[in-house]
């Protein structure tokens, strides 16, 4: 009997990343993939710079570049990413092999004494590492103070409990994956009201595009619904040249044979807000149509200004 092919899986080192990676390997095993699996932990640029604002660490791909290098060097065979960390464009030779079923795209508020967002006293400090979250937060509560926060889920919740923040905003999917009970959440924001990050709640399995044997096995665990929804969102991100450095979000839902997609772009102070929804049979066209509308309304200029201001800050 021939020995099984050993597949080396790349993962970041956090509890969330390792939990996601182990979960996906189990899905592969249950689908009958004829492989042995080994996990290789990889430290990324985004993991090394936890004391710097996410928008200043460096554009798209700060949580994936070292992992992509390992793919090119054949140190690993595929990587399990949080889809929201993936840049809009992938390097030639790499591709998303599959997207398993999405967990939860929503953002969640965790606050001291379970005080809801609209009931927080004026001047309360809310922690987030996302310009997208902070701009939408300021739209709802301009009287709150937004303070950046980085680190693992556990570290952020620890800072909240130590009194450094009155509330924090996290992705619901991450908390669910690492086993935090819903009881810790003060409130879940509707994904229609607080537009999530592109791909939030979904995993992206990245591999070399010439690895046919692996791609055939990944196809068995791909979720077509999640694939179409994330495709619409990532098309929008690509069309708008967006990244973690700008307040941009997108949320798609498959409704029958159509995709309903909403795109969001705002200035960091939330004084300029662009939001549009389309329903289309083609997820790619859904993303493109929203991008076209927002560009016509001036959203591209907001993105350019945010990036220019950031460049000046970093000089």
Work out the helix count.
11
User: Please, what is the average pLDDT?
Assistant: 91
Main beta sheet, described?
A: 5 strands, mixed
What's the CATH class of one domain, please?
Alpha Beta
Low-confidence stretches: none
- Tell me the series of helices and strands, N- to C-terminal: EHEHHHEEEEHEHEHEEHHEEEHH
Rg on CA atoms, Å: 19 Å
Would you write up a description of this structure?
Monomer. Belongs to the HMBS family. It catalyses: 4 porphobilinogen + H2O = hydroxymethylbilane + 4 NH4(+). The protein has 315 residues and is an alpha/beta fold. It has a domain at 107-188: D-Maltodextrin-Binding Protein, domain 2, CATH 3.40.190.10. It is 35% helix and 23% strand. It has helices at residues 15-30, 45-48, 54-57, 65-72, 131-140, 153-161, 172-177, 212-218, 224-239, 283-297, 299-314; strands at 5-11, 35-41, 78-82, 94-98, 107-111, 125-127, 145-147, 167-171, 187-188, 203-208, 248-255, 258-266, 273-280. The strands form 3 sheets. Strands 2-1-3-10-4 form a 5-stranded mixed sheet, sandwiched between helices. Helix 9 packs parallel to helix 10 (283-297). The longest helix is centred in the first third of the chain and has 16 residues, at 15-30. The radius of gyration is 19 Å and the shape is globular.
Supply database-style keywords.
alpha/beta; D-Maltodextrin-Binding Protein, domain 2; 23% strand; 315 residues; 11 helices; 13 strands; five-stranded mixed sheet; single chain
